[in-house]
Amino acid sequence: MLNFKEIAQITRGTLVQWKDHYPLQHLVTDSRKVVNANSSLFFAIKGEFHDGHQYLPELYAQGVRQFIVEDADHIMDLSAYPEANILLVSNSIDALQCVAGHHRRQFTLPVIGITGSNGKTIVKEWLAQLLSVTERVVKSPRSYNSQIGVPLSVWQINESHTIGVFEAGISQPDEMQKLATVVQPSIGIFTNLGSAHDEGFESQEQKLEEKLKLFEEVKCLVYCKDQVEVHQAVQEHKLPHFNWSKSHQQADVQIEILPARQQKTPIQFQYLRKKYGLTLPFTDEASLENALHCLTVLLYLGVEPDQLVVRFGRLVPVAMRLERKEAINGCYVIDDTYNNDVAGLRIALDVLAHQSRHGRKTLILSDLLEAGVEEEALYRQVAQEVSSRGVDRVIGIGDIISRHQELFPAGSEFYLGTDSFLGQLRPETFRQETILVKGARVFEFEKIVAALQQQVHGTVLEVNLDALVHNLNYYRSKVPASTKIMVMVKAFAYGAGSYEIANLLQFHRVDYLAVAYADEGIALREHGITLPIMVMNPSPDSFLKMEQFNLEPEIYSPDLLHRFLDYFPENSAKTPLIHLKLDTGMHRLGFDVAELEEALEVLAQVPHVRVQSVFSHLAGADEALYNDFSRSQMQQFTQMAARVEEVLGYKVIKHILNSAGIVRFGQEAAFDMVRLGIGLYGVESSGTEQSGLLTVGRLKTTVSQVKQIKAGDTVGYSRKGIAETAKQTATIAIGYADGYDRRFSNGIGEVLINGHRAPIIGNVCMDMCMVDVTGLDVRAGDEVVVFGEGLPLTELATRIGTIPYELLTNVSTRVKRVFYNE
Ligand SMILES: *Cc1c(COP(=O)(O)O)cnc(C)c1O
């Protein structure tokens, strides 16, 4: 193992303070993820939105003793870290890469480096599955492919591994060079060249050139020869290669795809003049391409073609989503049932640890499939990871984990297999707790998830939490770095589900939340949300409750101010915080100029009440047409806010911009804080920068029945759906009671079934509606997308003359919300 002084040499940093040799096993870049403080080395990274240096004191208090910093200002006072080793470098990420690169050089194993626009993670996971039959594989956890993720992945390599598989992703020029020095691949895979991350590059060629930098030193690059641009570039750079093709006779591996049957695709491939057959357990293009990359790599590695049949037959789809959902008896399940190695477990445990919903946390864990670690040491480590994350109860399933049960806390339960657990399952023993279900594929833990999940009808709103964080960061990038962010989570977080969203926002360190009513705020507090919360429509009878739950009211009129003060006379114990709403032209709620003077006169008399912020709301931020009006509102706001500070004699937080306002005026009028709403959920309401956002919500349901109807028949109530010709219809399980607007009736609305648009036929019913699927291959049970990728909310809203806000918030609470990370 490296020691701190060696790291100082490798990174050419300045040893600011050296106290002692400490064990060094874990590289940590996220202050929230320290598990073994005494053997961790923390890299303080200055990011666009966070600064790791801020957490140095907290980490020191937790027992971390080894730090790499890039900003000397934060270590001026060394007496705060009497026992720490501290290294100052010019760039902490460079230092991290340098350390990982050095670690990589200590090993001679073959390393496969994967890049390309799509499919990296799947190809990596599949290769790991396919190779693990004979190799001890080390791989990137999930999609750890960034400037930070790659070095952390490579750091996992140890003596026992026989092959490494790592993915590398870039979004800007110059990034790949750095990742290449970390991964040092001996074999490369270029998956494909798509349009992802185009914005960071001048041209498609530049992006390709940049990606190829990963492969400058490889012994062999695997790619598909049918991708013309990639093939040309490989030729130009004279990269040693081994390729496959569906159309070229001269490829190293020639592929012929045969017609699919029963969800499987038979293929034939020719290699070294001999022909072989194989069946791939998928039919979609993307999966086939990914599988063919894997096939080619295995052939290059010398795996006997005859062996491939068995290995590919066992290939399973990679469900990379880590889903969270409601379950029996008020429980909440985190479903991560696709693989189970230590790195993946660690990520899932972090997610569990950051759930504030319930105090009690249970882990259902299968045997681990981890290569190259001695069994007892492995489970000892697992047990330690588990207890350091505050897990209250462990249920171990599998004969290996059962053999090591003495390593786990008393009260843990063990079962030899999934079925024996299910046979003895007593649902009443799960109550008001968060349950992480983490198991390798072979254990079929999806059965456990099904048993624990609430039985609800098949209409689901899926919420992509990664997309949500992307959108949050997009809006952050539109305002100066010092600007605070308040996120509006009113109306059940615009229909997305408030606890989960609030919890994620708390994790990502937004500054404030806002809700419409006190009850919404109280519910957040009861689920462990500690961020400051503003309540926009406080009713006087909720003032005391609000104080009890630390909620801060918006005060919008002299009358409301007086009522508030009645509850909090001068001698009250706490300093109540309030927010003043100013009316600068919206004419909804707020003080006008005269009322503000009246309020300030009162406030000047009650110094025990503190005005935390003053704010106003733009009436027309979503339309350029109203820019002049918006600016006049901002001007008036500036004057009124200045008056507040003048009379009160202290600074208050000032804010006026909503999502559309951030896009239009983020640089000129962010003031101290902005209020982000709809944009977080993926709708850019100014209509100018939609492409910067990702779709967050996907409302989906299923086909209940398919019918053939004759010309002249009618469909649904009032016989409104008239079939002029013979038609095929599908009845789908969503109606106006689920929030599917009745205005979508009679062809106004469309849904997506198997990638095709199908119009509504007849009137929307309460729990169902019918769609026209004439000419489409549709069966009962097929998935139906009501809105989401491919069927944008803005389009649907326009069709019925409303706005995306209404469609989102209308999704009824009986529709189950499922949250996931990719
Ligand atoms: C809802 C709301 C917002 C957020 O508006 P979006 O258009 O969703 O960004 C901001 N401020 C106030 C006062 C609000 O009520």
TrEMBL record:
Annotated Alanine racemase C-terminal domain residues: 696-820
Q: Part of which pathway?
A: Amino-acid biosynthesis; D-alanine biosynthesis; D-alanine from L-alanine: step 1/1
Report keywords, A-Z: ATP-binding, Cell cycle, Cell division, Cell shape, Cell wall biogenesis/degradation, Cytoplasm, Isomerase, Ligase, Nucleotide-binding, Peptidoglycan synthesis, Pyridoxal phosphate
Q: One GO MF term, please?
A: ligase activity
Q: EC class of this enzyme?
A: isomerase
Name its co-factor(s): pyridoxal 5'-phosphate
Residue numbers annotated as active site: K490, Y717
Q: Where does substrate bind?
A: R588, M766
N6-(pyridoxal phosphate)lysine: residues bearing it: K490
Pfam families in the cross-refs: Ala_racemase_C (PF00842), Ala_racemase_N (PF01168), Mur_ligase (PF01225), Mur_ligase_C (PF02875), Mur_ligase_M (PF08245)
Lyase among keywords:
no
Q: What SUPFAM superfamilies does the entry give?
A: Alanine racemase C-terminal domain-like, MurD-like peptide ligases, catalytic domain, MurD-like peptide ligases, peptide-binding domain, MurE/MurF N-terminal domain, PLP-binding barrel
**Catalyzed chemical reaction(s):** L-alanine = D-alanine
Enzyme Commission no: 5.1.1.1
Domain of life from the UniProt record: Bacteria
Q: Which SMART domains match?
A: Ala_racemase_C
Q: What does this protein do?
A: Catalyzes the interconversion of L-alanine and D-alanine. May also act on other amino acids.
Instruction: Provide the family line.
Output: Belongs to the alanine racemase family.
Return the protein name.
Alanine racemase
Q: Which organism is it from?
A: Rufibacter roseus
